[in-house]
Amino acid sequence: MTSNSALASDEIGLTRVAPLTRRGFMTASAAAAAGYTLAAGPVRADVIKTDTTGLETGPAAIKVAGGEMPGYFARPAGVKNPPVILVAMEVFGLHEYIKDVVRRLAKLGAFAVAPDYYYRAGVDLTKITEIPKLMPIVNAKPDSELLSDLDATAAWAKSQGGDTGRLGIVGFCRGGRSVWEYAAHSSQLKAGVAFYGSLIDPPNPLWPKSPMQLAGDMKAPVLGLYGAEDQGIPPAQVEQMKAALAAAGKTAEFHIFPGAPHGFHADYRPSYRKEQAGQAWGEMQAWFRKYKVLT
Questions:
Q1: Please, what's the b/e burial string for 2-17 (b: 16 or more CB within 10 A of its CB; e: otherwise)?
Q2: Taking every annotated instance into account, which residue ranges of this chain make up the domain Dienelactone hydrolase (predicted)?
Q3: Cα 119 from chain centroid (whole Å)
Q4: What CATH number has the domain bearing residue 192?
Q5: Long-range CB contacts for residues 24-30, cutoff 8 Å, separation at least 24
Q6: Is the separation of the CB atoms in 106 and 84 below 8 Å?
Q7: DSSP string covering 104-124, please?
C-alpha cells in the first residue's frame, strides 16, 4: 500500500470524495459518448453545456519541440485581438468538461485554449477509467516540458490573432498546480487563477520545486480557490502558502469555500458544489478584470 505522503495532493483529494448518491448520473456508456472521463467516477446527468453561438471553436495544432501538440480553442467570432486565457486541465486529459470551460471563457470575451500537454504519452487519457493507471502517466510529465508547452500555447494563440499582452491562465486540480508553476515562470503572464491546485509535491525529480517553494518567484498575481473539505490540500496548507507569498511581498488572494471538497467546480463529478462553484467562477472573472485580462 502506498502511503499518503507519497501521493500527490490532487490524487488524495480525487480518491476521497464520496459520491452523494448514485441517482442523477449518466450511464457509463452515455458519459463516454458525451466525451467525459470516467476515471473520476460517475458523471452527473445535469452537466453544464455551453453552446457555440457567437463563437469560433475547434482543434488547435500547436508547434512544440519535436512535433505538434493538440489542443482545443474557443474565441468570440469576429472580435479582433481578444485577450488570451490558457486553460490547464486536470489529470484526465482534454475531455468535455475542459472543452466546456474553454467555451465559457470565450463567452466572456477571451481567446481560450486548452493544450493537451500529456499527448506525448501516446495514450488517450480520457479513455482511462482508473486513477491508479492514470497517475503514473501524468506524474511522468516534467515541469520543464510543461512550462515550455504553455509558452508554446500562448505563442500559438498570438499567431492566431490573440492579444498575449493580456495573457491569463486558469487551471483545475493538477492544472491548478500548473497555474502556480507558470506564474513563477512567465514574465508575460498578467494574472492566474488556481482552482484547488496542489501546493506541496511528493518527491519527484521531474518537479524540481513545488508551488510553495516558488512563492518568492511569482511574477504575476494569482487567485487561489480552495475547498475547506479538500482531503488532499487542507486549509492549513493554503494558509501556509498565503503566508509564504505575503512574506515574499507577492500579490495573491485566497478563498477557502466552506463545505467544498476537492473538485468542487467540476460540474460532471459527484464533488460538484453548485453554489461554491458559481461564486468561484465570479471571483475568477473579477480577478481577470482587475488585472486587465478581461475587459
A1: eeeeebbbbbbbbbeb
A2: 69-291
A3: 16
A4: 3.40.50.1820
A5: 25/270
A6: no
A7: HHHHTT-EEEEE-TTGGG-S-
Tally of domains within the chain: 1
- Residue 79 in 3-state DSSP? coil
The full DSSP string for 196-251 is S--SSPPS-TT--S-TGGGGGG--S-EEEEEETT-SSS-HHHHHHHHHHHHHTT--
Give per-residue pLDDT as tens, 1-41: 334 447 888 888 877 765 555 579 999 999 999 999 999 99
Catalytic annotation, residues: 173, 230, 262
Pairing type for strands 111-115 and 67-76 reads antiparallel
Percent of the chain with pLDDT over 90: 91
Count CB-CB contacts under 10 A for residue 176. Answer: 30
| pLDDT tens per residue across span 242-253 | 999 999 999 999
Amino acid at 254: F
State the amino acid at position 147 in one-letter form: L
Cell of 66: 519535436
118 domain residue, yes or no: yes
Element holding 279 (H helix, E strand)? helix 274-290
Range of the domain at 115: 58-291
The pTM of the full predicted model, rounded to 2 decimals, is 0.96
92: part of which helix (H) or strand (E)?
none
As a whole number of angstroms, the distance between CA 290 and CA 295 comes to 9
